[in-house]
Write a structure and sequence with these properties.
The chain is an alpha+beta fold. The chain is 40% helix and 25% strand. The protein has nine helices and 15 strands. The chain has helices at residues 53-76, 90-99, 101-126, 129-136, 197-215, 230-237, 260-271, 279-287, 294-309; strands at 9-13, 16-20, 24-30, 36-42, 143-152, 158-169, 172-178, 183-184, 193-194, 221-226, 240-243, 248-251, 254-256, 319-322, 326-329. It has a four-stranded antiparallel beta sheet, with helices on one face. A hairpin with a 2-residue loop joins β1 (9-13) and β2. The radius of gyration is 25 Å and the shape is globular.
Length: 334
Amino acid sequence: MSTKKTTIGGQAIIEGIVMKGPKKTCTVVRKPGGELVTKTEPAHHQPAFWRLPILRGAYTLFTAMKDGIVAINYSAEFFDDESIDEEPSKFEKWLEAKFGSEKLNRMILGLSTVIGIALPVGLFGSHSKADFLANNRLPSGYTHVLLLGVDRDANGTSRSDTIMVLSVGRGSVKLTSLQRDTGVTVPGKSGTHRLNAAYAYGGAELALKTVNQNFGLNITRYAVVDYDGFESLIDRIGGVELDDNAKTVTLDGDPVALTPKEYDILHFLMQHPGKVFSPAEIYRTVWAELPLNADNALAVHIRHIREKIEINPADPRYIKVVWGKGYKMEADTK
């Protein structure tokens, strides 16, 4: 197999990708309806100090962080949350009046970039030398377990995209994450492979051998977390339950305080699990009125319900939005 050096790199963004070359940068985003939107821009001009390695590295890091934030913000514009825009605060209005929208956006971008660079540097400097030695060489007096988070692609192939070493002992717990894309040698396979491919080749045992061989470890225990088993786990521990006789809602056995309208919306959706209803249909049923301004009114209530029943309201498990159609309740609620 022949290899060729390339000057093109890529970065994943929200439903898209950014490809950067020596002359141009191309951003491609897939909109909710499937349409691809492309934006091409000229690459950054190389400054006069480009030939100095230290300055070149610092400049590259800063521009890469800035470009990444810009690209993510650009892609996020196509995926606005269905909730209505909130009224800006007095402080936000003051900032915009003082600096203007464009200058304010540049200031926020610059601050975000500085924080993005300073935060990991600060975290690195705050750790003691012993902490990093414990990560690089497994400490004695601990029980070590390889944790494998397993998922399957569309073809049914399993990969362990989450790989961590759990060390328990001396009254503490340590977690060491191993990068899934690390190039390694897999026992019984020729060439270099990604670390997460070991599980696909030979399951947990081969993944364990691969980790031990490449990182100089001696782990004898492993645990596999299969994401396909999360649904049955949620069913066992509870999930969202609604008692219409008592007019109560519980989440994993704990009571959830809903307003009457929030309760009625949840009750309606749970009566028809998996079925998609438009905002107008839900509004007519719950409010018993003509669906005037139904989208905005319902979006506010849905957001409040999610804040009370979802672990991560931004990535809901129960109440899902179907773009361009409406809302539905997943079928694993009770």
